[in-house]
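HOLO CASE FILE
Compound: calcium ion
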Amino acid sequence: MKHEKDWYKELVIYQIYPRSFKDGNGDGIGDLKGMIEKLDYLKELGVNAVWMSPVYASPNVDNGYDISDYFSIMEEFGTMQDWEIFRDGAHARGIAIIMDLVLNHTSDRHIWFEESKKSKDNPYSDFYVWRDPAPDGGAPNGWMSVFGGSAWEYVPQRKQYYLHMFAKEQPDLNWDCEEAREKIFDIIRFWNEKGVDGYRVDAISYLDKGLDGRADFQETIGTVACANLEGTHRYIREMAEKTFAPAHLMSVGEVNINNEQDSINYSSAKSGEFNMAIPFVPPIVEIKTWSPERLKEDLERDYQILKEDGWWARFLSNHDKPRQVSLYGNDELYWKESAKMLACYLHTLPGTPFVYQGEELGMTNVQYHSIEEYDDIDTKNYYMSMLSDGASEEDALAESQSISRDNSRTPMQWDDSAYAGFSTQKPWLGVNPNYVKINAANQMQDDTSVFRFYQKLIALRKEHPVMVHGDFALCCPKKGPVIAYTRSFQNETWLVIHNFSEKEQIFEHDRIQGTETIILSNYDERAKERGKIRLRAYETMILELQDKNKR
Ligand code: GLC
Ligand code: CA
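Model generated. Tokens follow.
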């Protein structure tokens, strides 16, 4: 596909986590064959891009985010030919392909690392971040990895430590090495040649480690200590210029954002880095700090920072977060209402919406009964560290359940047959038992389903430029659970209102006549009143305001 400069603004991107999407060969693991089978489902939903989490060869210590060969497909997922069939099938349906690029680190089984660790003077010796031990023989500094434990691992053969911001099987690449950078860019060039339309670039805020004294050595988490240093931006600009930017391939970086300047650097056009950014917030922080008030503050601030020259990636879920309806909504009594409200929120904000597989069905968090049922390396490490800090098994399990990345990685719920129609075999990760009620087959037969609601929102975006290009202005009190805003473009103005609570709320706005068209809502009848709207539990609606001048 050929791409115009700003084409990414019109996308609705669907994220597939291939391991959990659909098993095409009956071994309990999702794969490319399964993805091919479900292309018509994606077409019916209406999305026009798919981002697939990594499908490259990997020993799967971190489910594909540890890559051992960037030029081949993981055996469990199929072959390069399967990938090409998926690509062609997607393109034929007007769906762009976005690949996940993991370039901060490789797997420790990648040939570069296997060579690099052998000696201090081999052709790959400088491809990773090696340092001598501290004078006492310990790690070069006190940095901890994201998944717990030291960020440094000793290799006797080299008598040195290497840096790993994530698991020890994920050694960090040394972006200061020009030769390594060129080899990394070759990976992207290879996928460009294969007809990829864009990239989601993983964990990309830590390329410049600042070990020469520029990092924050008071900070103990390595990724926090060196986030967003000058060299990182320089390397991203170089990568963009040499690889994805010239053909206007879409790009989104997964980054750390601590201040206004970080947002501008990563997601404004003039910076020459990415089209937009996915800010990484650890689930435990998000669970403890989110509130409707906080969302409103963030919306307002992010809009002001980027409205002239930037763009926003909008998402409520991904493979690193709990399920959105469990986190921001109510996955019991108001399951359907809140799932739809969150959908409406996601699609009506300025920016490009990202839909994570299963959220279009309102899939929820899972609760396994023992730590053995979990798969996620982060969950397991977290659980162990709670135990060693003296927590009881019960408390450790309860907290792990709420933050686990497995909440979003349970198999996709296709129908109510065994294993939710995901596979004919016991899947690699347990199916959420609520699949009998929450599944694609029954939602596709129900006009009022969450799936049908997503479909409507996605179709609306194609018909109404106001959803893509409209100005944004909040119009609700700063306090309280109501989030409301207008979007306006040319002579069209939409008023979008959400009640982020189960309690009734009164929303007032002087332009409400009581007679305007309701473009979409998650409740049926409504009392018509002038100047105000009574909102029920998790009610959401889009109203078309009448032209100011015609009043
Ligand atoms: C990103 C990915 C996450 C992975 C990590 C290390 O945060 O989204 O799944 O574990 O990077 O690659
Ligand atoms: Ca399979």
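CASE NOTES: The chain is about 30% helix and 15% strand. The mean pLDDT is 97.
CLOSED: yes
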